[in-house]
Structure formats: C-alpha cells, structure tokens
Amino acid sequence: MQVPLSFEFFPPKTPEGAVKLRGVRQQLYAMRPEFCSVTYGAGGSTHEGTFGAVREILAEGVDAACHFSCIGATRDTVRAQLAELKAMGVKRLVALRGDLPSGYGIGGEFLYASDLVRFIREEMDRDFHLEVACYPEVHPQARSPEADLQAFAAKVNAGADSAITQYFFSPEAYFRFVDDARKAGLDLPIVPGIMPITSSMQLMRFSDACGAEIPRWIRLRLTSFGDDTASIRAFGLDVVTALCERLVAGGARALHFYTMNQAAATLGVLQQLGWQAR
Ligand code: FAD
Questions:
Q1: Mutation pick for ligand 1 pocket among 114, 139, 261 (CB with most ligand atoms within 8 Å)
Q2: Is the pTM of this model over 0.90?
Q3: Does residue 8 have an active-site annotation?
C-alpha cells in the first residue's frame, strides 16, 4: 500500500547548490509529496537559506514545512520569526530544540522543544500545524527511555499535531516506540523518518552524532564494500526498501525521507517499492 510522503532538505550553502536543489525538488515532486521540509541551523545560523528555500517550495505550489529550532533564542526573536513565517504563507512548522555547535553557550529563553511548542500555541493559536521530533532509539541526551517518552509527551501535551522520528534501521524500535506512545495516551501520527543509504562514511558519522543505531550486520556489510559506491548503494537500496515495506505493513501511515538534497536514492527506494507518482 502506498502511503503519503514528505521530503526533507537542508538549505543550500551556495548559489550552485540552490540551482541543484531546485532540480532535485522537481524530480521528487513527481511523487506528489504531502509536504517538503527545510532544516534550520540551531542558533539561527541558516535563517536566510532556510526561509529562502521554504519560499521557493511554496512558490512551486507545494506545502512547505519550516524547521524551527529554539535553543539560544529569545521570545522576541521567535515571535518576530513566527510573524515572518506566517506572512510568507507557511502553515506547517517542525518545532525543535536543536543542538548548538560546541563552543556556544546555551543561553536563550527556551530549554526544550516543549517550551517552543507551548509558546507557539500561546502566541499564534492554531496558525501552524506543528510537527515535533521523536526518537524510537532514544535521544542521546535523555536520562532514560522513560524520561524521553515523557519529554515527547510534554511536546504533544503542549500542542504538537504530529511527529517525525529520527531515522533508524530496526523496525522493532519504531513499533515498540509507537506502542509505548499509545499506552501513554499519545494518539498523534508518528511518521517514520527514513534515511536512504548512499555513503558508508557519511551514514556512520551522522549516526554516531545523532544516536541512530546502525545494526552490526549493516555496519559490517557497508565496511566490507570499502570504496565500492555502487555496491554500497545497491545494498542500501535493498535494506531501506525492506525497512519501508515492514513499516507500512506494520501500520505506518506515512513516510518522511531525509533526502540529503539528492533525488536518486529516495526515488530508487520508492521505485523499488513499486510506488507510482500520484
Ligand atoms: P527536545 O524534545 O527538547 O529533547 C531534547 C532532550 O532533552 C532529549 O534528550 C529529551 O529527553 C530531553 N528533555 C526534553 N524535555 C525535558 C525536560 N523537561 N526535562 C529533562 N529533559 C528533557 N536539528 C537542527 O538543528 N535543525 C533541524 O532542522 C533539525 N531537524 C530535525 C528533524 C527531525 C525529524 C529530527 C528527528 C531531528 C531534527 N534535528 C534538527 C535534530 C534535533 O534538533 C536534535 O535531536 C536535538 O538534540 C533535540 O531536539 P528536540 O526538538 O527533539 O528536543
């Protein structure tokens, strides 16, 4: 069964990157995504690039979700940016705490994403559909899985409409997390975040940083391919396609792809799933 899709991009750093991303988006639009989202550098470091890409997506006739991180921000700056997003016609936000690069003091008036969700609801009522992040394999800074589930519940109770997970390769982790959330009375959509595999080094670096687990057998297979990019991609395509099949068969009602600003890997998975442009 084909389910609704969303695609995530990061803001391009150069004019050439922006041109390339426009082409990538057009290729992915063929799959009629429910929305496309653009990440936001914590501390506002990508403000211009993020808002620019969001503007372009809206102008291309596609619903855009702007990621919005609050760490280091003040109520005044958040208020001003929310007004700017509303004026741009943005209707959907991914409300996050974010991670400041090391060396930055924490500062700011928001400690957690739940503070941001609460603030947005207080200030803007229901002007935005609010997505939040969640972690089937537990956020790396969480005191315990239970504490992390409570942190997720705090975001939902503060007014989140739906959630997107950190990527993972063990469907059991997702199903268990959704079960635990339902038992805790959280009935919002919990959409799996899917990371296509295109490069071993990049995947391992990201996974170490964000706490996503690469199962040993996948790590070993990837390592064994060395620099053989074609084999890494073919193996990655099989692994991620099988993951998507399991997730949808097990009840996932939508999928969110971390595209890494590339069309081929995501489209490869969708093609292998046999999903058509809608
Ligand atoms: P929170 O929900 O605030 O949680 C952060 C940590 O604090 C967790 O360990 C949680 O258990 C703990 N916690 C929460 N509330 C409490 C409390 N009351 N008491 C004690 N502990 C608490 N990062 C970016 O910089 N830009 C992006 O665009 C971006 N997009 C993302 C999109 C998705 C779908 C995902 C899954 C992650 C994204 N990230 C992004 C990464 C994210 O910013 C980091 O994972 C960050 O460390 C946590 O953000 P959060 O919103 O989940 O934080």
A1: 139
A2: yes
A3: yes
